[in-house]
Write a structure and sequence with these properties.
With about 180 residues, the protein is an alpha/beta fold. The protein has one domain: 3-Layer(aba) Sandwich (Rossmann fold), CATH 3.40.50.2020. It is built from 4 helices and 9 strands, in the order βαβαβββαββββα. Strand 5, helix 3 (about 105-115) and strand 6 (about 120-130) form a beta-alpha-beta unit. The longest helix has 18 residues, at about 10-30. It starts with a strand and ends with a helix. The chain binds 1-O-pyrophosphono-5-O-phosphono-alpha-D-ribofuranose (PRP). 1-O-pyrophosphono-5-O-phosphono-alpha-D-ribofuranose binds next to strand 2, strand 3, strand 5 and helix 3.
């Protein structure tokens, strides 16, 4: 499996220490509050569960699923809601947790959707950010790592559903997705 990777971009140790820092920052910013985390399936599951375990404040968690990519490496630009929240978010401090922002289409759609439901606030926390690829004006409030425009997998990120379970972020060899 590791033969399919160009290199490890972010080691497990670096990931975990950055996730801890983000958790500390969020715990400080939301002191006295009870933020409502929205984990976007499936990519951000690993990040969300680590992040929440490092928090020092109470919180709640729910899941949503959207789809913007077909099978492959390019975003189609079209966002489809596959699974909505099961509970209202009125009066809640919402933090959307994503694994990666690429074009920004997914989060811009999600943020707009959730803001219509009268939450107290909506913020975005992403593990990875690829600003070079942005197609819409969107920025995250909490960013783990800004990364170059390479196809990355691991720690929740997939290529055709493979590699999500790898504990680090790796760059996929071009020949794997261009064959
Ligand atoms: C990925 C990722 C983000 C989105 C980012 O999800 O998890 O949701 O694409 O791309 P964008 O900024 O161009 O919209 P994907 O649709 O691959 O689903 P997954 O999380 O289940 O792998």
């Amino acid at each position: 499996m590791y033969n399919n990777f160009e290199k490890v971009l972010i080691s497990e140790e670096k990931l975990q220490s950055r996730v801890k820092e983000l958790a500390k920052q969020i715990s400080d910013d939301y002191a006295g509050k009870n933020p409502f985390f929205v984990c976007i399936l499936k990519g951000s599951v690993f990040f969300t569960t680590d992040l929440l375990r490092y928090l020092s404040i109470p919180c709640q968690m729910e899941f949503m699923a959207v789809s913007s990519y077909g099978a492959g490496t390019k975003s189609s630009g079209e966002v489809k809601l596959i699974k909505d929240l099961n509970v209202p978010i009125e009066g809640k401090d919402v933090i959307i947790v994503e694994d990666i922002i690429d074009s920004g289409n997914t989060l811009s759609y999600l943020k707009r959707l959730l803001e219509q439901r009268n939450p107290t606030s909506v913020k975005i926390c992403t593990l990875l950010d690829k600003p070079e690829r942005r197609k819409v004006d969107l920025s995250a409030d909490y960013v783990g790592f800004v990364i170059p425009d390479e196809f990355v997998v691991g720690y929740g990120l997939d290529y055709n559903e493979d590699y999500r379970q790898i504990p680090e972020i790796c760059i996929l060899k071009r020949e794997v997705y261009e064959k």
